[in-house]
Write a structure and sequence with these properties.
Elements (H helix, E strand, L loop, with lengths): L1 H15 L2 H23 L8 H24 L3 H15 L8 H15 L7 H11 L6 H12 L1
Helix pairs in contact: 1-2, 2-4, 3-4, 5-6, 5-7, 6-7
């Protein structure tokens, strides 16, 4: 489903001659193909699931946000702007992101669900969050929230 949306968006961007979208979508599809090949090596003939694709998209956004910080520190505003434009293209394929309040409520529910009591249980909580809410939250921020509650 998500693969089809990505391919269709690439075709549309090519017709519209939207260079930024075309290049970003090609990067996404190339990364997806690389991950599919790696998954086949591990015995997964189907390739990535939609949830795994959402995770890939989120990691691509995280990489770009990190790059933006570095470019801004180096005074390279044009490169920072390009990364921001790529983030906008990638975000079109993610579900609506949870607010901080929604994340806090979900995290509290998951902590109760898995019976987490200390930082030793953080892995269980994060695994459950990633399984149930892939693509819906920033897991770096969620990790900090979980650590705060369990710590």
């Amino acid at each position: 489903m998500l693969r089809t949306r990505l391919s269709d968006a690439l075709k549309a961007a090519m017709k519209e001659k939207d260079e930024r979208s075309v290049s970003t979508l090609r990067l996404i599809l190339a990364a997806l193909k690389d991950q599919d090949i790696a998954a086949r090596g591990k015995g997964n003939k189907e390739g990535l699931t939609d949830d795994q694709v959402l995770g890939l998209l989120q990691s691509m956004i995280k990489q770009r946000r990190d790059s933006i910080k570095l470019y801004e520190q180096g005074g390279r505003m044009e490169l920072s702007q390009r990364e921001a434009e790529e983030i906008a293209v990638i975000e079109e394929f993610l579900p609506e992101q949870m607010s901080d309040d929604e994340m806090a409520a979900v995290i509290t529910g998951i902590i109760g669900e898995v019976g987490a009591e200390s930082l030793k249980d953080m892995g269980k909580v994060m695994t459950a969050l990633k399984e149930q809410h892939a693509g819906q939250m920033d897991f770096a921020k969620a990790s900090a929230m979980v650590k705060e509650r369990l710590g």
